[in-house]
Amino acid sequence: MFEASAGDITTSTSCGCMGAPRAVAVVGFKAAGKTRVVEALVSELTRRGYRVGTLKHTAEDQPLDKEGTDTYRHAEAGAVSSAILSDNRTAIFLRRAMNLQRAADALGDVDFIILEGFKMLDLAPRVIVPRGPEEVEMLRMGLEIASVDVEGRVKDAGDLPVIPIGDAGAMADVVEERAYPLLAGLNCKACGYETCREFGAAILSGEGDAGKCVRYGGAVLLRVDSSVIALNKFTGSALANVVLGFTKTLKGGENPHRVELEFEVRGDA
After folding, report:
1. Which of 1, 25, 171, 206 could form a disulfide with 115 if both were Cys (CB 3.0 to 4.6 A apart)?
2. How does pLDDT run across 34-52, given as a tens digit for each residue?
3. In terms of Cα–Cα distance, which of 97, 93, 22 is closest to 58?
4. What's the whole-model pTM score?
5. In angstroms, how far is the first alpha carbon of the chain from the final one?
């Protein structure tokens, strides 16, 4: 998919991530209490008036639908995707993996995204949940903003604040202050850093601006197979100008404000 804002096809100099949901990953080993931390964060942030979405990762290849439901039976019959709608809820089941950023976009209009189970994720700040002191360093990669003590076994985590599981307010305070939007995960260097991890560390130290990520910093967004493709100012502007040139020659496209182009690539292309 190609998306462009026709009113401004040059890269924005302001923070392009304004309005984007901020993210934080709650990470730890199995049975550490991560879900309890997520529950506490979601509850407290919601109480403060924020809209919160969550994303859970599992390494187990198991059905995500409940056995015996109609949608489960649809999938068992061979459906590659199925959905169920009610007046107030929607559930969609896909028999394929989804790009993390695309899944985050599917959460809709939220203020915060809390991720659980993405232990190696380096695209968002991290709250670690160690089961013991020895796991603190095992879980660190330079993007940590807090350590949560679930069972009273981890009183010290070096330079990280240690927050007891019962203090949801303190957890939410840290997330409010330090969370930033999910990065693109391309290691494209467009932000001026070698990797997204280095960029994230710079954001946390106050030296980086999340708006410089290609996911947020440009007026032109190119997605190929659900992944964002890095475009610098020149290539983004050139691509937008070509598409806009054709668009403006078409009936109904003379004065566009937003352009979306989506097509399938055939095998002989």
Report:
1. 25
2. 999 999 999 999 999 999 9
3. 97
4. 0.78
5. 17
